[in-house]
Write a structure and sequence with these properties.
The structure holds two protein chains of two kinds. Helix content of chain A is 66%, strand content 0%. Chain A is mainly α. Chain A has two domains: 2-71 and 246-291, no CATH class; 73-226, Orthogonal Bundle (MetI-like fold). By secondary structure, chain B is mainly alpha-helical. Chain B folds into two domains: 2-58, no CATH class; 72-300, MetI-like (MetI-like fold), CATH 1.10.3720.10. Chain B has a two-stranded antiparallel ribbon. The chains are: A mainly alpha, B mainly alpha.
C-alpha cells in the first residue's frame, strides 16, 4: 500500500516516518543492549566493572573470566546435564506428541471415543493439582535427584500437542485412505505419510521443545541436588543466591582481573549461546508454530 | 447382538489408534490427574511420611482459616491482581502499537531486522534475564544508575525499593514478550484487503484515518479474541520472573500468590495451607479460563481442536 508514496510525500508524512524509525530503532536497541552489556562485562577488567565504568564495550579487555570458566567443573557438569535433558526431552516430547495427536486428528467416526479423549487432555489446561500435590507425588515415585524428573513428567505438552493435531488435519484425508488401500496400518501411515508431510511443523515443535528444556530451572531447583542440577538452576544459584562457594582459592592470580560480576556475565553468555545458535531456525519456523492453530480467528 | 459385534469390530479396527493414545493417557493420568486428587491435602493435617493415599488426619477448613489469619494474604492477592492486570493490558496494547508502527515502515529489510531482534528476549529464561537485570539495574555499578547519576538524579534501587519493584517487574515482562506478541498482529494485518486502503484514500482519508477506519477494524476480531483468552491470567502475575527478581525487602509489593504458595509449601514445609492457597487460586483461574474459552468459542468460533 506504500506504492502510491513515490508520487508525492507530504512533509508531515516524512516527519512521521522519521519519528517512526527512531522509535522502532530505540525499541530494537533496548532488546540488544542489555545482552551487549553482559558481553562487555564478561570481557572487562574487574576494576572497571566494580567502578561502574563499563557500558557496551569491554574496558580493560581480557578473556580471564572465560579461561577460568573452562576449568569450572560445576558449570560444565550442569551444562552436560542440560544437554542430556534437552536431547532426551525433545525426542520424548516429539514421540509423545506425534503418537497422541495423530489419533485425535482423525475425523469423526474413525476413532470411537475421540471426544472423550479430547476432553481428557483438554481438561488438563483448565484445572491442575498445584505445586504441593505434584511435589508429593514425584517425591514418592522416587523422582528426587533423578534426571527423569526433568523430562518425563512434562513429556506431553498438551497445548503443543493440540497445535500438532491441527497440523495433521491439514494433510488431506485421501492420503490415509490410499495408504490403507495399499495395506498400511495407522502407525505406518503416520510414520511414512503424516510425519514427513508435516516436517516444517515438526521442526518448529522440536525447536520450541529444545528451548523449553534448555531454559528449565524450577524443576531442577526443587528436585535436584547440586551435583545433578541443570544449567539454569546452577546459574540461579550464582545469580540469585550469590553462592560462590565453588570458587577455589588457588586461582588468586587471575582473581586480580576477574570478579563475581565478570564471571557471572561469562557464564550467562555461554548459557545463552545455544539459544543464539538455533535462533535463525527458530525465527524461520516460529511464525508458523506460534500462530498457526492457536489463532485462526 | 448384531450391534455388539459391530462394536467389537470397530474396536478391533481402531485398536492401533487406541494403543497410540495409551502412553499419553497414562502419563497424563499419573502426572496430572493424581495430583488433582492431591487437592485433598488442603483439608488434611498432611504428614509426608504417611503418603498421598495414606491415613491422614482430616481437619476441615483449618488450613484455609490459617491462610487468612496470615497478615499478608490480602496484600498478596492485591499484588497479584495489580501486577497481572497491568501485564494483561500492556501486553495487549504495546504489541498492537508496535505492529502498526512496523506496518508503516518503508524499508522492508530494516523492518525485518527489527522484527528479528525484538523476538529474541522471548527465548531467554528469567534466570538469565534476572542476572542481566541485576547487572544493569545495580544501584552502585549498573549502567542505568550511572546514567541517572550523570544526569543529576539520585540512583534508584529498582529491585530493592517497594516504590519501584512492581513497575520494574511489569516493564521487564512487557519488554521480554512484546516482540513475540507483535507477530500475531502483524499476521492479522496481512489479511486486510488492500483495496480497502485505496477506497479510503479516494475518499480523502489520510494515513491516520486509514489506520483508524481500515486497519484497526480489520484487526478487531483478533484483538478482542486475544483479550478474551488473556482473562485466565488474572491470577498469574509471573511466578518464574518474580521468584528470580524479588527479595524479602520487596515482599510488601512484590509477593504474589504463586510465590507465597511456594514459600509456605515447598520451602516452608506447610503442605496443607500451601495446597489450600493453590486450590483457591486454581478454582478462580479455572472458572476464568473456562469462561474465556467458552466466550471465544461462542462468539469468535475459536476452536482449539
Amino acid at each position: 500500500m506504500a506504492k502510491t508514496g513515490k508520487i508525492r510525500v507530504s512533509t508531515s508524512r516524512k516527519v512521521f516516518l522519521a519519528v517512526n524509525n527512531v522509535i522502532l530503532t530505540l525499541l530494537m536497541l533496548s532488546c540488544i543492549l542489555p545482552f551487549l552489556y553482559m558481553v562487555a562485562v564478561s570481557f572487562s577488567n574487574k576494576t572497571y566493572v566494580d567502578a561502574g565504568m563499563v557500558s557496551f564495550l569491554p574496558k580493560g579487555f581480557n578473556v580471564y573470566a572465560y579461561q577460568y570458566l573452562l576449568k569450572n567443573v560445576s558449570f560444565w557438569r550442569a551444562f552436560g546435564v542440560t544437554v542430556l535433558v534437552t536431547v532426551a526431552g525433545t525426542a520424548l516430547n516429539l514421540i509423545m506428541m506425534i503418537l497422541t495427536a495423530f489419533p485425535l486428528s482423525r475425523p469423526e467416526g474413525r476413532l470411537h471415543g475421540r471426544t472423550l479423549y479430547a476432553w481428557y487432555f483438554f481438561c488438563t489446561m483448565l484445572v491442575g493439582g498445584g505445586m504441593v500435590p505434584s511435589y508429593v507425588l514425584k517425591t514418592s515415585l522416587g523422582l528426587r535427584n533423578n534426571l527423569l524428573v526433568l523430562f518425563v513428567p512434562s513429556a506431553l505438552p498438551v497445548f503443543s500437542m493440540i497445535l500438532m493435531i491441527n497440523f495433521f488435519r491439514q494433510v488431506p484425508i485421501e492420503m490415509e485412505d490410499s495408504a490403507r488401500i495399499d495395506g498400511a496400518g495407522p502407525l505406518r501411515t503416520l510414520l511414512s505419510i503424516y510425519v514427513p508431510l508435516s516436517k516444517p511443523s515438526m521442526a518448529s515443535m522440536a525447536l520450541f521443545s529444545m528451548v523449553r528444556h534448555w531454559n528449565e530451572w524450577f524443576t531442577g531447583m526443587i528436585y535436584m541436588s547440586p551435583k545433578l542440577q541443570p544449567l539454569q538452576t546452577y546459574l540461579r544459584t550464582i545469580i540469585v543466591q550469590e553462592d560462590f562457594s565453588q570458587l577455589p582459592v588457588d586461582e588468586s592470580i587471575m582473581m586480580g582481573s576477574i570478579s563475581d560480576a565478570t564471571l557471572r556475565a561469562a557464564q550467562i553468555i555461554i548459557a545463552m549461546l545455544p539459544i543464539l545458535c538455533i535462533y535463525p531456525f527458530l525465527q524461520k519456523y516460529f511464525v508458523k508454530g506460534g500462530t498457526l492453530g492457536s489463532v485462526k480467528g | 447382538m448384531k450391534g455388539k459385534s459391530k462394536w467389537t469390530r470397530s474396536l478391533k479396527k481402531e485398536l492401533p489408534l487406541h494403543m497410540m493414545l495409551l502412553p499419553g493417557v497414562l502419563l497424563i493420568f499419573i502426572f496430572h490427574y493424581i495430583p488433582l486428587y492431591g487437592i485433598v491435602i488442603a483439608f488434611q493435617d498432611f504428614k509426608v511420611a504417611r503418603g498421598l493415599f495414606g491415613p491422614q488426619e482430616w481437619i476441615g477448613f483449618e488450613n484455609f482459616s490459617y491462610l487468612f489469619s496470615l497478615p499478608n494474604t490480602w496484600n498478596v492477592i492485591r499484588n497479584t491482581v495489580t501486577i497481572a492486570c497491568w501485564k494483561i493490558v500492556l501486553s495487549l496494547i504495546i504489541p498492537i502499537i508496535v505492529a502498526l508502527l512496523l506496518n508503516e515502515m518503508v524499508h522492508a529489510r530494516y523492518k525485518k531486522v527489527i522484527q528479528t531482534v525484538v523476538y529474541f528476549p522471548h527465548f531467554i529464561s528469567w534466570v538469565v534475564l534476572s542476572g542481566i537485570m541485576f547487572g544493569l539495574l545495580s544501584p552502585t555499578t549498573g549502567i542505568v544508575n550511572q546514567i541517572l547519576q550523570k544526569l543529576g538524579f539520585e540512583s534508584i534501587y529498582f529491585l530493592g525499593d517497594n516504590r519501584y519493584f512492581q513497575g520494574t517487574v511489569i516493564t521487564s515482562a512487557i519488554w521480554k514478550e512484546f516482540g513475540y506478541g507483535t507477530i500475531v498482529y502483524l499476521a492479522s494485518l496481512t489479511g486486510i484487503d488492500p483495496t480497502l486502503y485505496d477506497a479510503a484514500a479516494i475518499d480523502g482519508a489520510g494515513r491516520l484515518k486509514q489506520t483508524w477506519h481500515v486497519t484497526l477494524p480489520g484487526m478487531r476480531t483478533i484483538i478482542v479474541l486475544m483479550m478474551v483468552l488473556k482473562l485466565g491470567d488474572v491470577l498469574d502475575a509471573g511466578f518464574g520472573q518474580i521468584l528470580n527478581l524479588y527479595s524479602p525487602v520487596v515482599y510488601e509489593t512484590g509477593d504474589i500468590l504463586d510465590t507465597m504458595i511456594y514459600r509456605i509449601g515447598l520451602a516452608g514445609g506447610k503442605f496443607g495451607p500451601s495446597t489450600a492457597a493453590g486450590l483457591l487460586k486454581s478454582l478462580v483461574s479455572s472458572v476464568l479460563i473456562s469462561v474465556s474459552y467458552w466466550v471465544a468459542y461462542k462468539f469468535f468460533d475459536y476452536k482449539l481442536f
